[in-house]
Structures are given as C-alpha cells and as structure tokens.
Automatic annotation (TrEMBL):
GO molecular function list: ATP binding; ATP-dependent DNA damage sensor activity; ATP-dependent peptidase activity; damaged DNA binding; serine-type endopeptidase activity; zinc ion binding
SMART domains for this protein: AAA (SM00382)
Assigned keywords, A-Z: ATP-binding, DNA damage, DNA repair, DNA-binding, Hydrolase, Metal-binding, Nucleotide-binding, Stress response, Zinc, Zinc-finger
Species: Demequina mangrovi
Motif (RadA KNRFG motif) on chain: 254-258
Recorded family membership: Belongs to the RecA family. RadA subfamily.
Region: Lon-protease-like, residue numbers: 353-457
RecA family profile domain: residues covered: 68-217
Binding-site positions, ATP: 97-104
GO cellular component: cytosol
Designated name of the protein: DNA repair protein RadA
Function, as annotated: Plays a role in repairing double-strand DNA breaks, probably involving stabilizing or processing branched DNA or blocked replication forks. DNA-dependent ATPase involved in processing of recombination intermediates, plays a role in repairing DNA breaks. Stimulates the branch migration of RecA-mediated strand transfer reactions, allowing the 3' invading strand to extend heteroduplex DNA faster. Binds ssDNA in the presence of ADP but not other nucleotides, has ATPase activity that is stimulated by ssDNA and various branched DNA structures, but inhibited by SSB. Does not have RecA's homology-searching function.
Gene: radA
C-alpha cells in the first residue's frame, strides 16, 4: 500500500526579512542580520487561503478614478516637496531620525498648519507626557483646538481614538513605544513593531486616512526595527542633521507617490523649525576679502542644486606623521586629491598638516566637488586666494584629468542666481548649450585648473 508524504514548510524564519530555513542558523542568508532567525514551527505546505467573494469587480485601468489619490498640502513647503506635493489619503509615512534631531517639532508644526487649514489631527505620543508635548507646542506656536493629543502606549486604545476622533491626519510618536496585548514581548521588539505597524497601516488604508509613524534609527543611521515595516509603508523619510548645527535635511528613501530625488531643507530655531527654500546663505561664507584656501562649488542633492564652500588649511607639521583632518568631506577623497596634486601638479604637501572643512555643516560627498576641493588645497598651499566670484565643478581622475559632471545646466543656473561670475566646468561639457548668465571655463586637467583660477603675483 502506497503511503503519501506531506511536504512541510521550513521551520525557521528571519524576523527582519522573512527568509526561511530548514534548520537554525545564527546569521540570515538574505539580509545578513545576526540573531534574527527564530523557530516558526513546521506547517503543511500548500494553499492555505481559499477563494472568497470579491469586494468590488476589477475595472479597466482607464476607468479607475484618480480622485481618491488627490494630494492635500500640509502648509510646510519643504515637507510637501519631499512627499511629492502633499499627503495622499491612506498613505502611511515612516519618519526616521536620531533622537533630538527635531522629528516631533516638525510633526507638531505640520499638525498645527493642517488644523489651521480646516483639518483635524490626532497626535498620539508614547514617548513623552501630554504636558511635555503641550509645552513644546506652546513654544513653537502650535496650540490649535483641532490638534487632539493622546498619550497612549496600547494599540487597542490608539485604534479606539481613531474611531472616536475621526481625524483627517494621524501622527504616532513613536511606533517603538506602542504595544499590542495580543503579542508577547516588550514594546519595540520585532514582533510588537510588526503587529502594531500592520494594524495601524490597515486602519489607515480602510479609512483613507494619511498617517505619519515616527521611527528610531540604529547606530549606523538605518531605520530601526524589522525591514518588513519599510516594505509595508508607502513613504520612508530620513530626517538628519548635526546637533551642533541648525540645518536639518529631510530625504525620501522610498516614495510610492513621487520621486525620491527631492531633499527638504529646514532650520531649527528657538521658535521651532522653519522651512528654508533658499539655503544658499547657510553654506556660503560672506567674507568681504578673499581668503586663501576657499573655493565654492555647486552640488546636486537629488534634483536640487545646492551651493557648498570648501575650506582648506595647510600648515607646516612638527610631527613625523603629518595630520589629516576633515569635516564634511570624505577623508579618503582628500588623500587621493593630495596625491594627484603632488604627482600631477608638483604641489609639495607630504610634510604639511592638512585640514579640510565645509561651511555651515554641509556634507559634500559627490565626486563633482573634486575640482573645488583641489583648488582649495592648492590655494591654501600657495597662500593665494582663488579668483573672486569663481566657482568650480568637476571630478578629478587619478591621471589628473577633469572628468564630466551631471546636471551642468542646473549648476550654471544656480551659480548665476547666487551671483558668481565665472564657473569652471569639465572640458567635455558642451558650452554652447549652457546659459550665458555666467562665464564658463572648460578645463581638461587639474594643472590647468590651478593655473587658471590661482593668479600669480
């Protein structure tokens, strides 16, 4: 008599990405996370869900109405820019950032502006007491009658508040502090965060209610909690900034309703947080006299051209191993450019201390800032300032050649708007197609750049 064997599903599952295995392993084979593979229990393989009655018939794509996805502006211009124009009904946004960066302040500002435009906002705080949130709202001028505040950490109570308040916008601060009584474990655990996120996302989708979830970040700057939360939400935003600087940047790491190439600029002040539509004044110094070791550049952050000023200081070293200190730029990039300047231009810097920094706490990471960085180093070493009103754009290769850069037209337009008179660009640039608002100098090598932008006495 033949016997039938039943195939079983793997008994171990990764709590971060859902990867399965037939035996326990210490490291997930998919996301490479340690200690996340837990026993899930073997279950018979095969279809577990049967066909049911559909809620609505399938429609041809041209007949589907787009009115349900209409955006509503929050009143915070930079926040709307990153979201793609505003909030979409039923959209769930995960806002992540380090403690103290200003996430709660930003959300209170958005809540107050939404209430002033006729909406009702439910703000659920799990980290702070209602009194602490009230004091912050009073400080930033966000005391509005239609901003409803609830201090809750139980998922059931939060869902009950959604039914009672009937808001037009919900904010949860933060997702790691809310816990469900149906799941074992402390708040913030993998199982709790997954259950709470799923329940809140389902509530937002069924009600057509936009919702903002505040999340923590890990030491390496990534969003804390299981990765499945990032897959479930519609938008993932990263709010970043240095605690010693007033500048804050909002980036979209994922956006189902718009582009992820936008970046929002904010300034943290005593009265709260302000949108900065023109952040050029934060990244450029305004010295009346030209100073050696300084060169501006125009970077592209997403789709947005942003100015940055790179400063360098070269001083004789009394140490056997000269110091190399950087702030706002990549230290390995500086070391490479020093080698190029030494070999291709003949600039002796091996026995000097080198200090490189940016103005206003800006972070310059794109290779198109290489020419400006090389000019700042050469200017500091020669003790001669770069020509007044000049900026530089281009990537420097190890051969000393200046390589092409993207979005040259946008950089030229931004340089003209900021008042620069001359811009150095790579020689491969089609100068005839660029606007004539500034004088464009096409160069082929870093040696040519130094000779052109550093006038000799």
């Amino acid at each position: 008599m033949a016997t039938s064997t039943r195939r079983t599903l793997p008994g171990y599952r990764c709590t971060e990405c859902g990867w399965t295995a037939v035996k326990w392993v210490g490291r997930c084979g998919e996301c490479q996370a340690w200690g996340t593979v837990l026993e899930a229990g073997a279950a018979p393989a095969g279809p577990a869900t049967k066909a049911t009655v559909v809620s609505a018939p399938a429609l041809p794509l041209p007949e589907v109405s787009a009115a349900a996805a209409a955006r509503s502006a929050t009143g915070v211009g930079e926040f709307d820019r990153v979201l793609g124009g505003g909030l979409v009904p039923g959209a769930v946004i995960l806002l992540a950032g380090e403690p103290g960066v200003g996430k709660s302040t930003l959300l209170l500002d958005v809540a107050a502006r939404t209430a002033r435009s006729g909406g009702r906002v439910l703000y659920v705080t799990g980290e702070e007491s209602a009194g602490q949130v009230r004091l912050r709202a009073e400080r930033i001028g966000a005391l509005e009658q239609d901003v409803l505040l609830a201090a809750e950490t139980d998922l059931g109570a939060v869902l009950a508040h959604l039914d009672a308040a009937e808001p037009s916008l919900v904010m949860i601060d933060s997702i790691q502090t809310i816990a469900s009584a149906q799941v074992e474990g402390a708040p913030g655990g993998v199982g709790q965060v997954r259950e709470v996120s799923s329940a809140l996302i389902q509530a937002a989708k069924t009600r057509g209610l936009p919702m903002v979830l505040v999340g923590h970040v890990t030491k390496d700057g990534s969003v804390a909690g299981p990765r499945i939360v990032e897959h479930l939400v519609d938008v993932v935003c990263q709010f970043e900034g240095d605690q010693h600087s007033q500048l804050r940047l909002l980036r979209a790491l994922k956006n189902r309703f718009g582009s992820v190439d936008e970046v929002g600029c904010f300034q943290l002040v005593d009265a709260g947080i302000e949108s900065v539509s023109d952040p050029s004044g934060l990244f450029l110094s305004h010295d009346a006299q030209a100073v050696p070791g300084t060169c501006p550049t125009i970077t592209i952050d997403g789709k947005r051209p942003l100015p940055a000023e790179i400063q360098a200081l070269v001083a004789p070293s009394a140490l056997s191993n000269p110091r190399r200190a950087t702030s706002g730029v990549d230290g390995s990039r500086v070391a490479m450019l020093l080698a190029v300047l030494h070999r291709r231009v003949g600039l002796p810097v091996a026995a000097d201390d080198i200090y490189v920094s940016t103005v206003g706490g800006a972070r310059v990471t794109e290779p198109a800032a290489d020419v400006a960085l090389a000019l700042a180093l050469a200017s500091a070493r020669a003790d001669r300032p770069v020509r007044s009103g000049w900026a530089a754009v281009g990537e420097v290769a190890l051969s000393g050649a200046v390589r092409p850069a993207s979005a040259i037209s946008q950089r030229v337009a931004e340089a003209a708007r900021l008042g620069f008179t001359d811009l150095i660009v790579p020689a491969s640039t089609d100068v005839s197609r660029l606007p004539r608002s500034v004088r464009v100098h096409a160069v082929a090598s870093v040696a040519e750049v130094v000779d052109l932008a550093l006038p000799r006495d």
